[in-house]
C-alpha cells in the first residue's frame, strides 16, 4: 500500500501486547483477525532484548505481508529498520520523528501519539503520517496513559489536521460509534480484541460497528 492511501483506509489497527495475548502466538492471532477488518498491526514489546524483539518482528512482518496487513513497530526505529517494517509508532518521549525519517526514508509510515494540545502541536509540526489521540476513554491496559481525552479532543484533532487520525485507548464495539459518527475510519485497540475468547468474532463486531455510520 502507498502510504498516501492511509487516510482512505477503513479498519482496525491492532496492537499486539504479550500480556493480553497470553499464550496465543502472534502468527495465529494475525491469521485469525486479518479477514475480519484488521488492516494494521503494531508490535509493542516491552522488557525483552533487542535480538528477541527483532526475531519476533521478522515473524510478525512475514505474517502481515502474507495477509496484506500494514506492519508497524512501536517505539523502536532500529527494529523497524532492521525488520523492514512499514513504519514506526513514536511516543512523545521516543526518538524525534526527524531522525526516524532519516533512518527509515520517505516511504515509511511514522505515527505519533498525542494526549493533549501541546503534544498535538508538537506532533503536527513533525514529518509524520498519522496521529493517535488518546487515551480516548479510560483504559486499564496502559496504566500510565494519562486521563481520558474524550471525543472532544479527537474532534479538535480532526479540525486541526488533514493527516489520518487513529484514536486509541479504551475503544470497543460499544463506544466506537462515537468515533465513527465524527468521521473516524480507523481505531487502535488492544483489549477489545485480545481479551476476547473468540478473536475473529470480536474483530468482526468491532469492524462492523466502526463501519456503521450515523448511529442514533
Ligand atoms: N496508548 C494509549 S492508550 C493505550 C496505548 C498503548 C492502550 C490501549 O489499549 P486498550 O486495551 O485498547 O485500551
Ligand atoms: Mg512509545
UniProtKB/TrEMBL annotation:
The gene coding this protein: thiE
Query: A biological process (GO) annotation for this entry?
Result: thiamine diphosphate biosynthetic process
Does the UniProt entry include the keyword Aminoacyl-tRNA synthetase? no
Question: In which residues is 2-[(2R,5Z)-2-carboxy-4-methylthiazol-5(2H)-ylidene]ethyl phosphate bound?
Answer: 139-141, 170, 190-191
Note describing how the cofactor binds: Binds 1 Mg(2+) ion per subunit.
Q: Where does 4-amino-2-methyl-5-(diphosphooxymethyl)pyrimidine bind?
A: 42-46, 74, 113, 142
List the lineage, top down: Bacteria, Pseudomonadati, Acidobacteriota, Holophagae, Thermotomaculales
Say yes or no: keyword Magnesium present. yes
Question: What cofactors does this protein use?
Answer: Mg(2+)
What's an example of a GO molecular-function annotation for this chain? thiamine-phosphate diphosphorylase activity
Q: What EC class is this?
A: transferase
The record's annotation in PANTHER family points to: THIAMINE BIOSYNTHETIC BIFUNCTIONAL ENZYME (PTHR20857:SF23), THIAMINE-PHOSPHATE PYROPHOSPHORYLASE (PTHR20857)
Catalytic function, reaction form: 2-[(2R,5Z)-2-carboxy-4-methylthiazol-5(2H)-ylidene]ethyl phosphate + 4-amino-2-methyl-5-(diphosphooxymethyl)pyrimidine + 2 H(+) = thiamine phosphate + CO2 + diphosphate; 2-(2-carboxy-4-methylthiazol-5-yl)ethyl phosphate + 4-amino-2-methyl-5-(diphosphooxymethyl)pyrimidine + 2 H(+) = thiamine phosphate + CO2 + diphosphate; 4-methyl-5-(2-phosphooxyethyl)-thiazole + 4-amino-2-methyl-5-(diphosphooxymethyl)pyrimidine + H(+) = thiamine phosphate + diphosphate
- For Mg(2+), which residues are the binding ones? 75, 94
* Designated name of the protein: Thiamine-phosphate synthase
Q: Which family does it belong to?
A: Belongs to the thiamine-phosphate synthase family.
Domain Thiamine phosphate synthase/TenI: from-to ranges: 12-193
The EC number(s) this enzyme carries = 2.5.1.3
By its UniProt entry, which InterPro entries does this protein fall under? Answer: Aldolase_TIM, ThiamineP_synth_sf, ThiamineP_synth_TenI, TMP_synthase
Q: Which UniProt keywords are given for this protein, alphabetically ordered?
A: Magnesium, Metal-binding, Thiamine biosynthesis, Transferase
| Biological function | Condenses 4-methyl-5-(beta-hydroxyethyl)thiazole monophosphate (THZ-P) and 2-methyl-4-amino-5-hydroxymethyl pyrimidine pyrophosphate (HMP-PP) to form thiamine monophosphate (TMP).
Cellular component (GO) terms are:
cytoplasm
The metabolic or biological pathway listed in the UniProt record of this protein is: Cofactor biosynthesis; thiamine diphosphate biosynthesis; thiamine phosphate from 4-amino-2-methyl-5-diphosphomethylpyrimidine and 4-methyl-5-(2-phosphoethyl)-thiazole: step 1/1
Amino acid at each position: 500500500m502507498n502510504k498516501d492511501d492511509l487516510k482512505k483506509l477503513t479498519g482496525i489497527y491492532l496492537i499486539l501486547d504479550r500480556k493480553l495475548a497470553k499464550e496465543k502466538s502472534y502468527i495465529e492471532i494475525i491469521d485469525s483477525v486479518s479477514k475480519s477488518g484488521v488492516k494494521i498491526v503494531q508490535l509493542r514489546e516491552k522488557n525483552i532484548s533487542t535480538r528477541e524483539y527483532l526475531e519476533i518482528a521478522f515473524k510478525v512482518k512475514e505474517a502481515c505481508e502474507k495477509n496484506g496487513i500494514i506492519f508497524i513497530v512501536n517505539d523502536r526505529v532500529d527494529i523497524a529498520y532492521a525488520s523492514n517494517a512499514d513504519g514506526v509508532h513514536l511516543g512523545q518521549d521516543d526518538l524525534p520523528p526527524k531522525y526516524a525519517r532519516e533512518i527509515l526514508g520517505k516511504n515509511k509510515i511514522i505515527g505519533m501519539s498525542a494526549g493533549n494540545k501541546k503534544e498535538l502541536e508538537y506532533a503536527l509540526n513533525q514529518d509524520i503520517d498519522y496521529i493517535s489521540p488518546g487515551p480516548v476513554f479510560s483504559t486499564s491496559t496502559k496504566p500510565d496513559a494519562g486521563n481520558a481525552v474524550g471525543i472532544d479532543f479527537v474532534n479538535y484533532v480532526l479540525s486541526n489536521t488533514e493527516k489520518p487520525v487513529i484514536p486509541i485507548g479504551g475503544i470497543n464495539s460499544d463506544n466506537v460509534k462515537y468515533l465513527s459518527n465524527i468521521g473516524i475510519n480507523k481505531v487502535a485497540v488492544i483489549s477489545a480484541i485480545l481479551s476476547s475468547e473468540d478473536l475473529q468474532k470480536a474483530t468482526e463486531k468491532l469492524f462492523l460497528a466502526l463501519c456503521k455510520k450515523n448511529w442514533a
